[in-house]
């Protein structure tokens, strides 16, 4: 028992430097209100459609996003693959931006599970040009797969949290709709985009056939995302979710947090944007660091640290100082602000970063 006590005191001393964790907004813990909502949630078996809390969340989500129906799924990745599989047949081709999450970070799910062929097209700051998309569409030829779906990401994570505008989305829709190609929005952080553009989120979703958005990022819920679309689309998507093992039972305990997230967490994302800007401005003044301030639009910043010896080196030096972030590639690091990072934490982070900058 004595030994355990010493171990505790030792750990406490090591831990007393507060870690400023800028790796991702996915690390946000549920709020006290969410924990309370879990306790009180009315539950039922959702595979029978009988979980009142899930039904409530799905209704709220559909109405906020501006679609007929919504479906609660386990994660953003599951939401994207469910959407892709629902829109397509095996062998179809899907166009997406070359740095998008669906192309880079979803374990090839659309190919492995849906037999789909990815057609990545490089964009500019995460935004696809309508001309490039037009060129990527396959013609009617016996040799070609059918181009069936276009995926758009908003905000664009790898581009640095860039918000794609309603006009840019409309221009893409104008290209694909005449070809009867469907559009899916990976809107993991679509509420961040809407706030940054000062527009209703529905203006970012009205041109697309399906939308996935995440509750478990800046909105601070512990688990879950929603897939939204027409009634017919969501009915089919529900079956695809079941096939993927995503039919959950009394998952109202999770949906309860989602309801609180949609009610209380959307507007506060603005604070994360303000903190990201303050962090970026502080970093921009440091030697060896370069940052494009025009790209700092939401809660993600991508920082060029090639002048400091590359991303791995910087990430590990910052880790020793109690600032956590992730390498994006060899020369860039990514920092993400979220509910668990205050304005004071940003000042602390900047002070510590200054210590590793020569
Ligand atoms: N993004 C995570 C990592 O996977 C990179 C992060 O820390 O940013 N779409 C987009 C645009 C995303 O950024 C993410 C997660 C997802 C989909 C997938 O969501 P989850 O993690 O819930 O499967």
Structural topology:
Blueprint: H1 2-15, E1 20-21, H2 32-40, H3 52-65, E2 69-73, H4 76-87, E3 93-97, H5 101-104, H6 109-114, E4 117-121, H7 130-136, E5 147-153, H8 166-176, E6 182-186, H9 190-197, H10 202-205, E7 210-214, E8 225-229, H11 231-243, H12 252-264, H13 269-284, E9 300-304, H14 311-320, E10 323-324, E11 326-327, E12 332-336, H15 343-356
Parallel strand pairs: 1-10, 3-4, 3-5, 5-6, 6-7
Antiparallel strand pairs: 2-8, 7-8, 9-12, 11-12
Helix pairs in contact: 2-12, 3-12, 4-11, 7-8, 13-15
Ligand TLP binds next to helix 4.
- Which structural class is indicated by helix and strand composition? alpha/beta
CATH class of the largest domain: Alpha Beta
Strand content: 5-15%
> Strands across the major sheet, in which order?
2-8-7-6-5-3-4
- Helical element count? 15
Helical fraction: 40-55%
- Please, what is the CATH homologous superfamily of the largest domain? Type I PLP-dependent aspartate aminotransferase-like (Major domain)
Radius of gyration: 21 Å
Outline the structure in words.
It is globular, with a radius of gyration of 21 Å. The model is unreliable at 1-14 (pLDDT under 50). Strands 2-8-7-6-5-3-4 form a 7-stranded mixed beta sheet, sandwiched between helices. Helix 3 (52-65) runs parallel beside helix 12 (252-264), helix 4 packs across helix 11 and helix 7 (130-136) packs parallel to helix 8 (166-176). It has 2 domains: 2-29 and 267-356, Alpha-Beta Complex (Aspartate Aminotransferase, domain 1); 32-264, 3-Layer(aba) Sandwich (Aspartate Aminotransferase, domain 2). With 358 residues, it is α/β, with parallel strands linked by helices. The chain has helices at residues 2-15, 32-40, 52-65, 76-87, 101-104, 109-114, 130-136, 166-176, 190-197, 202-205, 231-243, 252-264, 269-284, 311-320, 343-356; strands at residues 20-21, 69-73, 93-97, 117-121, 147-153, 182-186, 210-214, 225-229, 300-304, 323-324, 326-327, 332-336. The protein has 15 helices and 12 strands. It binds ligand TLP.
């Amino acid at each position: 028992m004595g030994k355990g006590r010493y171990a505790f005191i030792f750990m406490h001393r090591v831990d007393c430097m507060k870690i400023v964790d800028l790796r991702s907004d996915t690390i946000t813990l549920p709020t006290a209100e969410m924990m309370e909502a879990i306790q009180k949630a009315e539950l039922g078996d959702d595979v029978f459609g009988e979980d009142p809390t899930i039904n409530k969340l799905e209704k709220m989500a559909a109405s906020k996003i501006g679609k007929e129906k919504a479906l609660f799924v386990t994660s953003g990745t599951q939401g994207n693959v469910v959407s892709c599989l629902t829109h397509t047949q095996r062998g179809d081709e899907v166009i997406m931006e070359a740095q998008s999450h669906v192309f880079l970070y979803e374990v090839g799910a659309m190919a492995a599970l849906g037999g789909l062929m990815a057609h990545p097209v490089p964009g500019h700051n995460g935004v696809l040009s309508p001309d490039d998309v037009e060129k990527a569409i396959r013609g009617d030829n016996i040799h070609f797969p059918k181009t069936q779906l276009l995926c758009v990401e908003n905000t664009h994570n790898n581009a640095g949290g860039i918000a794609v505008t309603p006009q840019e989305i409309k221009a893409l829709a104008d290209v694909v709709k005449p070809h009867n190609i469907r559009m899916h929005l990976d809107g993991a952080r679509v509420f961040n985009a809407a706030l940054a553009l000062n527009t209703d989120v529905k203006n970012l979703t009205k041109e697309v056939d399906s939308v996935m958005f995440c509750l478990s990022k800046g909105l601070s819920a512990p688990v879950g995302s929603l897939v939204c679309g027409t009634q017919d689309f969501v009915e089919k998507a529900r079956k695809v979710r079941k096939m993927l093992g995503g039919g959950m039972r009394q998952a109202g305990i999770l949906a309860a947090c989602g309801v609180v997230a949609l009610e209380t967490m959307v507007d506060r994302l603005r604070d994360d944007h303000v903190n990201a800007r303050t962090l970026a401005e502080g970093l921009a003044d440091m030697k060896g660091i370069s940052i494009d301030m025009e790209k700092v639009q939401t809660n993600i910043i991508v920082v060029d640290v090639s002048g400091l010896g590359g991303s791995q080196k910087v990430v590990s030096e910052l880790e020793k100082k109690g600032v956590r972030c992730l390498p994006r590639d060899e020369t860039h690091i990514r920092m993400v602000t979220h509910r668990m990072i205050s304005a004071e934490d940003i000042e602390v982070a900047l002070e510590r970063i200054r210590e590793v900058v020569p």
